[in-house]
Amino acid sequence: MAPTPFINPDNFAPARFGTINTMLGLVVPFLFVVISLIALGVLFKGAFMFITAGGDSHKLEAGRKTFLYASVGIVIIFTSFFVVRIIATIFEVPFLL
Question: Which of 86, 79, 81 has the alpha carbon at shortest distance from 28?
Answer without folding.
Answer: 81
